[in-house]
Every structure is written in structure tokens, then in C-alpha cells.
Amino acid sequence: MGSSSTDEKMGKKREDENDIIYVGNYSSMNGVALYLNSGYGSIRVSTNVEHDFDCLLKWMMSLQANVTHIELNELTSGRAFIDALRVIDSNYFNDAWMEVFKDANYEQSEWRLRANVLRKILKSVLKYNEEICNNVISKNILPNVMVIARDGSKEEIIKFIRIVVAAAVNGPGKDGMIKNIFDLEKSVQHTLMLTIQGLEFEGDNIGELEVECKSAVVGGIVGDRVV
């Protein structure tokens, strides 16, 4: 009992098979900063594109109750991203916003037209991150929409989803979004944590922005797993 109390105060690290569990409450800003910047908080970067891609698709599917599969062409056309954003914040990504895409043909075979739709979506979600979440996403991590539309690059789609995740966990509905993540399998949670850690921001207060944005999921998940 005394050991457990000490663990809570110290935020001691324990390992359970392949999972790293942190004892103590790291949901505060300072706790998350410690988690992200300490050796205890480092997580091996995944190099398995297929695994990460599948996990991030599971997260996107979890946003809508009746969606059990997302085809690659739904991503390369932008349709899946539009649907996700409508769930993330229907007040911002509303019917008026949808008017921009009223003439979009999501079955379009011409990749340049698909790239144009993706470009508009990306512009909107970047604006959302800046205006609503107060985070300016770094140009260094932006996806290449032409490569997505033309080649269906999973690496670039992962980059696109990362920016959508940033909007989800920092917007007005972030509590519900983070709660939804808790219900997903551990491999998906882990991939989302890596995704959040891969975010980069611009601006004078870049350090504070990174901690604040990353704390949304990382702090929530770690704080929720107190043992």
C-alpha cells in the first residue's frame, strides 16, 4: 500500500509486457510536459506504414457509428476526410462549408481534380487548427495532396490524418474525441500517441503549443491509465 502511494507521488514508470504504464496523474500541463520530454516518455517511432495506416483508419471509422470500412478511393478523393471533419465539428464544417464541395465528383478518375478537392480540405483544416485550436501547423509536416490523389500514397495520407487528429483533440469537442480514443484497442491508441508526437508547430510560442496540443491525447490517455 505504501509502495503504491510512493509510486503515485513519484510518477514511477512500470512496464507490463510491451506496454509502458505510468503510475500517477499526468493529465496536467506540467505532468504532460515531463512525460513528453523525459526519457520515460519516449516512445519508439513506428516505421510500419501499413500498421499505422490501418490503425489511423480504425480511428477515422470510429468517428461514425455505421462506418466499418474506408476504401482508399474515399481518402484520395477527400470524401472520408470531409465526413470525419463533419463529425469533429459540425458547427464549423457545416452546410455552408460543404457548398465548396457541391460540384465535387468523388468518383472522379482525373487525379488533378481529386488533388484540388484535397487541397481545399487541407486548407480548411489548417485554418481550423489556427483559428479554433490556436495552433499553426508547420509546413514541414504537411502532406503532398498531389501524391495522395495520383498515387494513393499511404505515407502522405498518414500525414493528412495527423492534421485531422490535431483538429479533433484540440477543438471544442475534444473531450468526446479523447473519450472515443480510450475505447479503441491499445495498438490504435499507441499509434495515435505517436501521431500526436509527430506534430510540429510554427510561431514564437512553439514549445508551449506543442505541449498543449500533444497533452490533449497523451495526457488524457496516461492520466486515464492510473493503476
Automatic annotation (TrEMBL):
One of its GO terms (molecular function) is dynein light intermediate chain binding. PANTHER family: HOOK PROTEINS, PROTEIN HOOK. Gene3D superfamilies: Calponin-like domain (1.10.418.10). The keyword Coiled coil applies. SUPFAM superfamilies: Hook domain. It is found in: Cytoplasm, Cytoskeleton. GO terms for biological process: cytoplasmic microtubule organization; cytoskeleton-dependent intracellular transport. Residues 53-197 form the HOOK N-terminal domain. This is Protein Hook-like protein. Keywords: Coiled coil, Cytoplasm, Cytoskeleton, Microtubule. The keyword Coiled coil applies. GO terms for cellular component: centrosome; cytoplasm; microtubule. Belongs to the hook family.
